[in-house]
Amino acid sequence: MGIFDKIKGAIFGNAAAAPSASPASPDSAPTAAPGAESAAAPEPVAAPTADAGQPVDVEAILEKAVAAKGQKLNWRTSIVDLMKALDLDSSLSARKELAQELNYTGDMKDSAAMNIWLHKTLMKRLAENGGKVPAEFTD
Q1: Cα(104)–Cα(52) distance, rounded to whole angstroms?
Q2: Which domain holds residue 126?
Q3: What's the rounded Cα separation, in Å, for the pair 58 and 22?
Q4: Each residue of 15-27: pLDDT tens digit?
Q5: Which tens digits make up the pLDDT trace of 103-119?
Q6: Which of 30, 40, 122, 128 has the largest count of CB atoms under 10 Å?
Q7: Contact 10, 88 (CB under 8 A)
Q8: Which residue has the higher pLDDT, 21 or 3?
Q9: Number of domains the chain contains
Q10: What is the pLDDT at residue 37?
Q11: What are the two backbone dihedrals, phi and then psi, of residue 127, each rounded to the nearest 5 degrees?
Protein backbone atom coordinates (compact mmCIF):
# COMPACT_ATOMS: atom_id res chain seq x y z
CA MET A 1 0.00 0.00 0.00
CA GLY A 2 1.41 3.36 -1.02
CA ILE A 3 1.47 6.48 1.11
CA PHE A 4 -1.30 8.12 -0.91
CA ASP A 5 -3.46 5.06 -0.27
CA LYS A 6 -2.69 5.30 3.44
CA ILE A 7 -3.71 8.97 3.49
CA LYS A 8 -6.84 8.26 1.49
CA GLY A 9 -7.68 5.32 3.74
CA ALA A 10 -7.23 7.40 6.88
CA ILE A 11 -9.52 10.11 5.51
CA PHE A 12 -12.09 8.12 3.56
CA GLY A 13 -11.98 5.04 5.70
CA ASN A 14 -11.60 1.72 4.00
CA ALA A 15 -14.95 2.08 2.26
CA ALA A 16 -14.42 -0.99 0.13
CA ALA A 17 -13.55 -3.11 3.15
CA ALA A 18 -15.75 -1.38 5.71
CA PRO A 19 -18.96 -3.43 5.31
CA SER A 20 -17.20 -6.79 5.63
CA ALA A 21 -14.41 -5.63 7.97
CA SER A 22 -16.57 -3.97 10.59
CA PRO A 23 -17.06 -7.07 12.73
CA ALA A 24 -13.35 -7.94 12.43
CA SER A 25 -12.11 -4.48 13.42
CA PRO A 26 -12.15 -5.07 17.20
CA ASP A 27 -10.26 -8.33 16.72
CA SER A 28 -7.60 -6.68 14.59
CA ALA A 29 -7.07 -3.68 16.89
CA PRO A 30 -4.92 -5.50 19.48
CA THR A 31 -2.51 -6.60 16.75
CA ALA A 32 -2.11 -3.04 15.43
CA ALA A 33 1.11 -1.22 16.09
CA PRO A 34 1.20 1.16 19.05
CA GLY A 35 -0.03 4.57 17.98
CA ALA A 36 -2.05 3.11 15.10
CA GLU A 37 -5.12 2.89 17.30
CA SER A 38 -5.61 6.67 17.33
CA ALA A 39 -5.37 6.72 13.51
CA ALA A 40 -8.53 4.62 13.42
CA ALA A 41 -10.61 7.39 15.03
CA PRO A 42 -11.40 9.28 11.79
CA GLU A 43 -12.27 6.10 9.86
CA PRO A 44 -15.70 5.40 11.39
CA VAL A 45 -16.73 8.97 10.57
CA ALA A 46 -15.67 8.65 6.93
CA ALA A 47 -16.84 5.12 6.18
CA PRO A 48 -20.61 5.73 6.43
CA THR A 49 -20.32 8.82 4.24
CA ALA A 50 -18.29 6.97 1.62
CA ASP A 51 -20.68 4.02 1.71
CA ALA A 52 -23.66 6.30 1.15
CA GLY A 53 -22.12 7.60 -2.10
CA GLN A 54 -21.75 11.10 -0.70
CA PRO A 55 -18.53 13.10 -0.98
CA VAL A 56 -16.30 12.66 2.05
CA ASP A 57 -15.82 15.95 3.94
CA VAL A 58 -12.03 16.05 4.06
CA GLU A 59 -11.97 19.30 6.02
CA ALA A 60 -14.22 17.98 8.80
CA ILE A 61 -12.24 14.75 9.11
CA LEU A 62 -8.90 16.54 9.25
CA GLU A 63 -10.20 19.09 11.77
CA LYS A 64 -11.41 16.24 13.98
CA ALA A 65 -8.08 14.43 13.63
CA VAL A 66 -6.16 17.59 14.59
CA ALA A 67 -8.44 18.20 17.58
CA ALA A 68 -7.86 14.63 18.75
CA LYS A 69 -4.11 15.20 18.69
CA GLY A 70 -4.24 18.03 21.21
CA GLN A 71 -1.38 19.86 19.51
CA LYS A 72 -1.15 22.75 17.11
CA LEU A 73 -1.16 21.21 13.63
CA ASN A 74 -1.86 23.26 10.52
CA TRP A 75 -3.05 20.70 7.98
CA ARG A 76 -4.25 23.51 5.68
CA THR A 77 -0.73 24.54 4.70
CA SER A 78 1.58 21.80 5.93
CA ILE A 79 1.83 18.33 4.43
CA VAL A 80 3.87 17.35 7.49
CA ASP A 81 1.12 18.43 9.89
CA LEU A 82 -1.54 16.79 7.73
CA MET A 83 0.32 13.49 7.87
CA LYS A 84 0.92 13.84 11.62
CA ALA A 85 -2.79 14.47 12.18
CA LEU A 86 -3.50 11.15 10.47
CA ASP A 87 -0.82 9.30 12.48
CA LEU A 88 1.26 8.69 9.37
CA ASP A 89 5.01 8.89 8.92
CA SER A 90 5.79 12.48 7.93
CA SER A 91 9.55 12.04 7.57
CA LEU A 92 11.38 13.44 4.58
CA SER A 93 11.82 9.95 3.17
CA ALA A 94 8.06 9.29 3.44
CA ARG A 95 7.32 12.61 1.73
CA LYS A 96 9.80 11.79 -1.03
CA GLU A 97 8.06 8.45 -1.51
CA LEU A 98 4.70 10.24 -1.72
CA ALA A 99 6.19 12.70 -4.22
CA GLN A 100 7.28 9.78 -6.41
CA GLU A 101 3.82 8.22 -6.18
CA LEU A 102 2.22 11.48 -7.26
CA ASN A 103 4.75 11.96 -10.10
CA TYR A 104 6.63 14.96 -8.72
CA THR A 105 9.16 16.14 -11.30
CA GLY A 106 10.82 18.89 -9.27
CA ASP A 107 14.01 18.79 -7.22
CA MET A 108 13.46 16.55 -4.20
CA LYS A 109 16.38 18.26 -2.48
CA ASP A 110 14.24 21.42 -2.33
CA SER A 111 11.95 20.07 0.38
CA ALA A 112 10.05 23.35 0.81
CA ALA A 113 8.98 23.44 -2.85
CA MET A 114 8.26 19.71 -2.78
CA ASN A 115 6.12 20.05 0.36
CA ILE A 116 4.04 22.85 -1.17
CA TRP A 117 3.54 20.81 -4.33
CA LEU A 118 2.67 17.71 -2.31
CA HIS A 119 0.01 19.48 -0.28
CA LYS A 120 -1.62 21.05 -3.32
CA THR A 121 -1.48 17.85 -5.35
CA LEU A 122 -2.74 15.73 -2.46
CA MET A 123 -5.79 17.95 -2.04
CA LYS A 124 -6.54 17.74 -5.77
CA ARG A 125 -6.17 13.96 -5.73
CA LEU A 126 -8.45 13.64 -2.70
CA ALA A 127 -11.05 15.73 -4.54
CA GLU A 128 -10.67 13.53 -7.64
CA ASN A 129 -11.28 10.46 -5.48
CA GLY A 130 -14.55 11.65 -3.96
CA GLY A 131 -13.36 14.03 -1.28
CA LYS A 132 -15.03 17.33 -0.62
CA VAL A 133 -12.13 19.70 -0.07
CA PRO A 134 -12.33 23.44 0.62
CA ALA A 135 -12.43 25.52 -2.58
CA GLU A 136 -9.09 27.13 -1.71
CA PHE A 137 -7.42 23.79 -2.52
CA THR A 138 -9.04 23.11 -5.87
CA ASP A 139 -7.54 26.01 -7.79
Answers
A1: 33
A2: 3-137
A3: 22
A4: 433 333 333 333 4
A5: 999 999 999 999 999 99
A6: 122
A7: yes
A8: 3
A9: 1
A10: 43
A11: -65, -40
Residue type, 95: R
Q: What percent of the chain is modeled with pLDDT above 70?
A: 71
Contacts of 28 (CB under 8 A, 6+ apart): none
Q: Are 47 and 32 in contact (CB under 8 A)?
A: no
Annotate the chain with three-state secondary structure.
Answer: CCHHHHHHHHHHCCCCCHHHHCCCHHHHHHHCCCCHHHHCCHHHHHHHHHHCCCCEEHHHHHHHHHHHHCCCCCCCCCHHHHHHHCCCCCCHHHHHHHHHHCCCCCCCCCHHHHHHHHHHHHHHHHHHCCEECCHHHCC
